[in-house]
């Protein structure tokens, strides 16, 4: 057991906290850290805190666990308030960074990112939404993204000896699997995250910014090709065209029927096996295939960044915590502990031993995030992409429906300044 440098340990209302005096009677500086519920285990936080306080004798950590429900308003309030009793470091969803950076309320961490933290190796799906222009506000912490979960036994019965490496092969294999009472794939009609990957692979996007103005771009030729592939794949199963992957939850559908594949985060396999223990040992994983064999498909990357409020009273102390949490030692420790993807492509080998996480890491290397606009949450609030997908899968003209959905995206991304 490591020897603690503190003579006194005191437990507060936070999950992990220690307080004490330095030799000579000098009090440690407290750094308050807000982390989200279930992002890290209690054991990880205990080990990290002990190590950090041992190597930073002038600092102590006060880690406070937050609920996702209502977090946006709580963070906004903290960013507007004074430094006293406020957080010095905050974990935020990677796509939320633009929301909080708007108005200049986050500390600019560009220098540290370039000089000390190796930002050129960060996962793009975490790093890009953490930027505003040339300034880096969000520092990547961990990632998770979708892979293909498949039935090994159904692949074998269909005579498929390996997993597909290209979208063309994936489509051909899925068509072969879609026979009799077996669905080649269960893909809900409104799974817009999966569609986004196909659009990005074609060189398109959901929306793009030009001259500081955002406009929806589902009607571009590239985006329409992505929708065309989605339609071809979705037709090789019986997924509902008017619902997303949570209605009904696809884990239950997969567990209850003869379905060869779904697109989901690998952790969903545990839920599937709990609901149908007969599938234990029969599930495998592979990255969403790309257009060519040498590059997995582009996928939406979820996960978290760490930010430092502009109103912290000690930015140096705050960035010390960010540096430690996102550095190779503790970032790989977190990835192994929680089955995440580490924040850098160079750290992917740390999760090679877990098939599902390794597949996830391969996709994350080419991951993307939603458009980097503070108003993107308004798009998702009444998501026109879902309605667009349902209408196209129901037989409507793709170009017409894409123009209609793009106009709605543009309207949602246009700030109301009146």
From TrEMBL:
Q: Mind telling me which InterPro entries this protein's record contains?
A: SBP
* Signal sequence residues: 1-18
For this UniProt record, the keywords arranged alphabetically read as follows: Signal, Transport
Q: Please report the name of this protein according to its UniProt entry.
A: Extracellular solute-binding protein
Classification via SUPFAM superfamilies: Periplasmic binding protein-like II (SSF53850)
> Record's Pfam families?
SBP_bac_1
Q: Which family does it belong to?
A: Belongs to the bacterial solute-binding protein 1 family.
Q: Where are the transmembrane segments?
A: none
PROSITE patterns given in the database record: PROKAR_LIPOPROTEIN
Q: Where is this region: Disordered?
A: 397-418
Which portions of the chain have biased composition (kind: Basic and acidic residues)? 400-410
């Amino acid at each position: 057991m490591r020897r603690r440098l503190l003579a006194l340990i005191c437990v507060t209302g936070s999950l992990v906290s220690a307080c004490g005096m330095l030799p000579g009677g000098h009090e440690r500086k407290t750094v308050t850290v807000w982390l989200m519920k279930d992002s890290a285990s209690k054991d990880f936080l205990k080990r990290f805190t002990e190590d950090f306080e041992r190597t930073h004798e002038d600092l102590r950590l006060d880690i406070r666990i937050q609920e996702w429900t209502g977090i946006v308003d709580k963070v906004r309030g903290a960013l507007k308030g004074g430094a006293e009793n406020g957080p010095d470091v905050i974990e935020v969803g990677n796509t939320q960074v633009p929301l909080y950076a708007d108005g200049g309320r986050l500390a600019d961490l560009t220098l540290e990112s370039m000089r000390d933290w190796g930002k050129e190796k960060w996962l793009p799906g975490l790093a890009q939404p953490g930027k505003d222009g040339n300034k880096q506000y969000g520092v990547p912490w961990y990632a998770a993204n979708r892979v293909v979960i498949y039935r090994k036994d159904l692949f074998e019965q269909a005579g498929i000896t390996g997993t597909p490496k290209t979208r063309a092969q994936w489509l051909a294999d899925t068509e072969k699997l879609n026979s009799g009472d077996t669905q080649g794939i269960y893909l809900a009609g409104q799974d817009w995250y999966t569609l986004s990957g196909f659009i990005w692979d074609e060189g398109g996007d959901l929306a793009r910014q030009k001259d500081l103005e955002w406009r929806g771009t589902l009607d571009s030729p590239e985006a329409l090709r992505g929708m065309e592939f989605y339609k071809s794949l979705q037709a090789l199963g019986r997924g509902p065209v008017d619902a997303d992957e949570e209605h009904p939850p696809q884990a239950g559908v997969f567990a209850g029927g003869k379905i060869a594949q779904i697109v989901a985060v690998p952790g969903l396999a545990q839920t599937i096996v709990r609901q149908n223990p007969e599938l234990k040992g029969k599930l495998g994983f592979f990255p969403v295939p790309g257009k060519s064999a040498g590059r997995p498909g582009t996928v939406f990357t979820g996960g978290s960044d760490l930010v430092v409020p502009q109103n912290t009273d000690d930015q140096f102390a705050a960035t010390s915590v960010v540096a430690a949490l996102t550095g190779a030692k503790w970032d790989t420790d977190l990835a192994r502990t929680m089955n995440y993807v580490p924040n850098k492509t160079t750290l992917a080998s740390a999760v090679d031993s877990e098939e599902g996480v390794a597949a996830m890491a391969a996709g994350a290397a080419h991951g993307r995030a939603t458009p980097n606009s503070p108003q993107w949450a308004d798009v998702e609030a009444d998501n026109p992409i879902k309605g667009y997908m349902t209408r196209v899968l129901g037989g409507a003209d793709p170009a017409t429906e894409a123009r209609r959905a793009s106009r709605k995206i543009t309207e949602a991304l246009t700030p109301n300044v009146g």
